[in-house]
Every structure is written in C-alpha cells, then in structure tokens.
User: Fold this.
Amino acid sequence: MTVLTAIAIVIASVLGMEVIAWSSHKYVMHGFGWAWHRDHHEPHDNVLEKNDLYGVVGAIMSMSMFAVGSPLVLGEAAWWEANFIGIGIMLYGVIYTLVHDGIVHQRWFRWVPKRGYAKRLVQAHKLHHATIGKEGGVSFGFIFPRDPAVLKRELKAQREQGIAVLREAIEA
Assistant:
C-alpha cells in the first residue's frame, strides 16, 4: 500500500463519517436516541452530557477498525487498511470535539468567529438548536454547513407548517 492510498483512505473515512454523523443525528439522535441527545438541546450547568455517549460510540467504531486491522487480534485474517479507516474515524471525532464542543458550544474556550467558514459553521449549528424538542430542525451535518439564510427560511417554513417549535430568539 502506498502512502497516497493510506491518506486517501483516511480522507474518505473522515468524509464518510460526515455522512454517518448526518444520518445518525437526524434519524437516531432526533429519533429513538433522543433520550441521550435531549440534554444537548436544553440549558444546563453540567460538565458532561448524556449526549457525550455518542462520542463513546464513535470511539468504539474507531477502536473496532483498529482491531480488524491488527494481526494481534485477527492474526492472518487482519485487514491492514482498516487501521486507516480507524484513523479517519478518530480524526473526525477529534475535529468534531474541538470544533463542535470547543468553538460552537464553547465548552473549553471562548472564541466567536467573525467571518468565513468557522462563522458559517457556528451559525448553521446555532440554527440547528433553534428548535424546541426533537421535531423539525435543520443542519444535521457538521463539516459542510449550509447557508444560514437558507436554513432560516427552512425553519420558518417548518414553523408555519406546525412541524417545529422555535425558540423566542429565532421567532422574531
């Protein structure tokens, strides 16, 4: 395997995790997994959230790939490329944790981006939190934030259709 192939697998895994994150956020976290995700959408003073358990799930996914790629675990049946998938999943988790928890929700440091990609990412995620409860909502992905103006129009339409209840700050 070449270095370029390994890098391509890592990048593809990070991008693949965005698809997994979007779909699990929309259909699991805002569906049958709401019990873990609810506290992420409600004000609290706790250091940890039940929602953080989803990070544990991601870590288990990454560790599982390392196990599949390890000759110590699977012997001759080990699939070496799985290690690079594990690295990609882990890298996505690091990016998500630093940016989502760090910048967007300011759990560890205070920095409000004033322009560019980071500002768009924060705006899109804040609009995701504009709804009360698990119904409706926008912006379930993370790495590729959509235009906040489009998201605002979608939220307005969801409110008008009775799909979503919006927080007061967004209603105006």
